[in-house]
Amino acid sequence: MRALLWIAALAAAGGGVAASAGSRRETFSEDLLVKPLPDGKVLLHFEFSVQRALSTGIEGQHSYRLFPRQIGEIALRYGVRELQLAFTQGGWRDKWGYAPVASQGAGAEILARIEGPPEEAARQWKGLANALSGVFCASLNFVGQENTSSPRLTFAETTNADSNGSTSGSTGGSTGSNTGGSVLKHGYLPRENVCTENLTPWIKQLPCQSKSGIAALLNPHRLFNMHFHSMGASLAAATDATSGTPVLHYKQHVSVVLDPSTFGLGSNWTLGELMDRDLAAACPVASQSTVRVVASRPDLQTNSRPDSTGQVAGHTTHTFDLQKRRLDDIGLSFGSAAGPPPASTLPAISAHRYVTGHGGISGGIEAIIVNRRAEPVRIVYLDVLPWYLRVYSHTLKVESTAAGGRTAALAPSRLLFTPAVDRGRPSSLEVEMYLPPNSHTTLRFDCEKGFLKYTEHPPDANRGFNIGPAIVSYELPVADPAASQPLFCAAANGQAPGKACAVRIYTELFLASLPTPDFSMPYNVVSLTCTVLALFFGRVFNLLTRDFAILKQADI
């Protein structure tokens, strides 16, 4: 009996050591950033981060405590070095300033760097899309070779990719398609809608789910009653800044733009009233749990004293530490409803894309890129179009209009074009150029609309085909003043010297109207044929089966 008790005690002690070691290998942090916008709306940016030490042993690879097991096993199974996934609804407005996330185009976007040769990476990419489709209850399984591209300039190799759109490193001239034995794959589903069935599995990946912490504020009824919504996750291997050991970062984010007046709230409101949920205590396993309020208006006040106040990108930021004290709610009040609105900081670069031409056979695409800086800016323009929009690369024209109104042709410094293969791959156009100071640059090219089989049309074919957005990537110089840096880039980089800010912006989607067959014609033909056959068959059958007899006059 004593031997059994001794063995049980040793097992309990060993379990405690293992749990302690597991807690040291994985850390979890949560953060909520609240920022009033110039037009009276409010931006809420939720971010949850899990860091896991990489282990080469079999036991370490399959031992999970805080890190989502399904994500870790998917990354291990398909050789994923980096992964970015985003589901977006609505459009980010330039008047709101810099976007808090990299992916702002409506629909679903998946970006992954997969280890291995191109042939093997293509098979792994398809398996990865199917696996993520099941995890997030999305239609990512429709990401195939016909809508997958491998950009070489837009997405550069980064060692600390995150979901903020503010990566440390350069988007410079190094090609990012095949680097270091890995292949970059990028897919986009412009028709993918975001709903609660995507949010539920996303929340289940959190250590505390929505039971405690700032995740308790994630109310689906408020999150999807919004003007802009972006939900996603990113995975990247990096090096821990403290210990120097290799780690795996997994970040989840939710960014929403809400209008308090939609819910009957005035100039004074609390987070609980805005989200219709109570603010719970910090997640017990979180090493950091904070709520940051950006004082973008001088008359903004909070109902509780913040734990610290600092400057981030020229904005005063109040930080509330949920681990130091329990807060029932955090309220924001303004001096007057008609007080001075927050200053609108327009981004350095804006981009919009339009469809030109008319008819169902030919047309064109035109993009307008605005540079608001007083110095040239290097950008990379990426446009991935489906195979049924055949791009004529020789018609590409780039013109720039300076502040004085003078228009001149602009020669791209680099041009990469991958033609499409029918039902095999999309066409990809990457243009690297330097925008003149304070200029409007127009990029246009012609395209031809192809003919589809009648089985390839969607049920609402007359509505048109959704075409994904174009992407413009650029880098803000290191010497930029703090006030002109994106808020989330400065928060991620800590405004450390030598770290530039890489930004990606997305244009609008557009509808492509293709030649559409008359889908009602088979019905009309079948109806007419059946009617004629029925009448003919009835008359002939009546004549063939009727017994004709000659009646005498006396029988009448």
Q: Can you give the helix content as a percent range? A: 10-25%
DSSP helix count? 9
β-sheet strand percentage: 25-35%
Low confidence ranges: 1-23, 157-175, 493-497
Shape: globular
User: What's the alpha carbon Rg, rounded to whole Å?
Assistant: 29 Å
Number of structural domains:
2
Cα end-to-end separation: 118 Å
Structure, explained:
- This protein is of the alpha+beta class and 556 residues long.
- It has helices spanning 2-25, 58-61, 69-77, 118-136, 196-204, 220-223, 271-275, 487-493, 521-545, and strands at residues 26-36, 42-53, 80-90, 107-115, 148-149, 178-179, 182-189, 228-239, 246-258, 269-270, 288-295, 301-302, 308-312, 315-321, 331-333, 349-356, 362-371, 377-385, 389-401, 407-409, 414-418, 427-435, 439-449, 465-467, 471-476, 501-506, 510-512.
- Strands 1, 2, 3, 4, 5, 6, 7, 8, 9, 11, 13 and 14 form a twelve-stranded mixed beta sheet that branches.
- Strand 6 (178-179) and strand 7 (182-189) form a beta hairpin.
- The longest helix is centred in the C-terminal third of the chain and has 25 residues, at 521-545.
Summarize the structure in short.
By secondary structure, the protein is an alpha+beta fold. Helices cover 19% and strands 35% of the residues. The chain has 2 domains: 23-333, no CATH class; 349-470 and 507-512, Immunoglobulin-like, CATH 2.60.40.
Blueprint of the fold:
Elements: H1 2-25, E1 26-36, E2 42-53, H2 58-61, H3 69-77, E3 80-90, E4 107-115, H4 118-136, E5 148-149, E6 178-179, E7 182-189, H5 196-204, H6 220-223, E8 228-239, E9 246-258, E10 269-270, H7 271-275, E11 288-295, E12 301-302, E13 308-312, E14 315-321, E15 331-333, E16 349-356, E17 362-371, E18 377-385, E19 389-401, E20 407-409, E21 414-418, E22 427-435, E23 439-449, E24 465-467, E25 471-476, H8 487-493, E26 501-506, E27 510-512, H9 521-545
Parallel strand pairs: 1-11
Antiparallel strand pairs: 1-2, 2-9, 3-4, 3-8, 4-7, 5-7, 6-7, 8-9, 10-15, 11-14, 12-15, 13-14, 16-17, 17-23, 18-22, 18-25, 19-20, 19-23, 21-22, 24-27, 25-26
Protein name: Subunit of the glycosylphosphatidylinositol transamidase complex-like protein
Transmembrane segments: 523-544
Pfam families: Gpi16
